[in-house]
Amino acid sequence: MEAIWDPLRITLQVTVLGTAILGVAGLALGVLLARVRFPGRTLLEVLILLPLVLPPSVVGYFLLVGLGRGGPVREWLGVDLLFTWVAAALASAVVGLPLMVQAVRAAVAGVNPSLEDAARTLGSSEREVFWRVTLPLAKRGVLAGLVLGGARAMGEFGATLMVAGSIPGRTQTLPLAIYDAVLVQDYSLANQMVLIMTSLAFLGLWWVRRQEEPRRSPRDGPPGRPPGAPREEPA
Amino acid sequence: MRPASDGAGPLSLQVEVVRGSFRLRVALASEVGVLALVGPSGAGKSTLLQAIAGLVTPREGEIRVGERVLFRRGAEGPAVNLPARERRAGYVFQDYALFPHLSALENVAYALGRGEGARRRAREEMERLGIEELADRRPDQLSGGQQQRVAIARALASEPRFLLLDEPFGALDPETRRKVRGEVRRILREARLPVVFVTHDREEALALADRVAVLDRGELLEEGEPLAVLGHPTRERVARLVGVENLFRLEVVESRPTEGITLCRHGELPFELPLLAAAPGEEVRVGVRAGDVLLAVGEPGRLSARNVLPGEVVAVRSHGGHLEVEVDCGGLFLRAHITRAARNELGIVPGVRVRAVLKSASCVVLAG
Question: For the domain bounded by A2-212, which CATH number is listed?
Fold first, then answer.
């Protein structure tokens, strides 16, 4: 049981911290891209999307440079995160971020701007407009992005290996432990861990699909809303 | 809570708004009462409302409510640009913009903060408008007319200093429109605030407004009493915009100042108009509302109307509640509105010989 418990605990730690980071950053970046026009917008968008298409080893390499000797985190903040579970969380956040940003941007862009204008004329500050109108209306899309990004973060393998290694009991997450188990031909252990990973991913995707399914209410609009399109009705 | 005494009074503005290649230049004042902004789509009516509410920033000008300056740039005095949330506009959006994730009551309570007090105040506002039974419904469970009422309640609950309504009846079917018009009229009067509402419907403007301003392509063409502006516009562009049915040109023959008339002609047809400052041979444009054209079958006898034009009916069309008859008066095509009863009694069908009767005073000479 020890052999599963340690990687599962580390996986949960990494997933929770990674999802928190990508959640906050993804919300801010998604709203920025959906609502603000600024020079360099496309550049920022491409940079955020890069981890989707780059090999994990390349993403890992960039993080290694950023976190390692001479990198800003060590030089300016004075902390060495390499080969800790926090580095694994960072790596998984970077890889999950594009999914979150894409979902938030689409959800926020789908909120009718005249609702936000209405809130402004009713005395709301920009912050209130966001928390009382924009976010509640974009809720489904934001949650879906969070679950997808979180699931992607949980399954992170390559970049994590580069910056956190695969130290049993310290940085070895389930995906890494599965790889090790297969290497030493411990298929019984591998099977159990694969079952856990698959179940979690399955449940996450199931939940997202359920959220995107239009709910029928008596006065609902026409069916056939494209997947991922935000609904303005409450969840 | 915001103080209730600040910045009450008439709304006055003079702004220039530039959006891409579109330019809006308007100067207006709205006393306590209802001002209708009339014009075709693209005239800049909604843009003007947004500028007043602080949702669009004018390039320059000044907007004030009483002594309170909402916006000032390039005008005398310090520059001001209050954000929308501080302008205290009661804004009713074209599609009502009710928050779909909140109940009707929560929509009305939005500006009042949270808590029981806010809900009670919102409920009172809804009772005042007679819509308290809608309190727990979501916007998607409300009809268009109900949404409109909730949107007005939401705007009024925020204790605005003025009301802005963007096509308040635009999202309603014609029948509902007529039904709710009287009710909205009552609500607007009782609010005792300056009201600016946008419409492209003449009837609506006549029914609701104390004053009318006609806007076209970002320009204020005419402003004044609804009946004067919409019924007898004095400029050709306005006449076209508000749908004056008969527009034609006349050639001046001679003026008779002692009789107070000017004789004109359209081809061979003689016309008698009120005295004009125009020289013989000059051309004038004239507008006549179809409702001011009488039709007579046979010799009409002695009339005070000075223009009796023989002609032939070429078409009879249904036009709202009445009929529009097109008469060919020797090459001048005139349109007249008559009732179905009149049509039946006079037997007006295409081909019938009639006389079109026009009072001189209803022939309005138009400026360019």
Answer: 1.10.3720.10
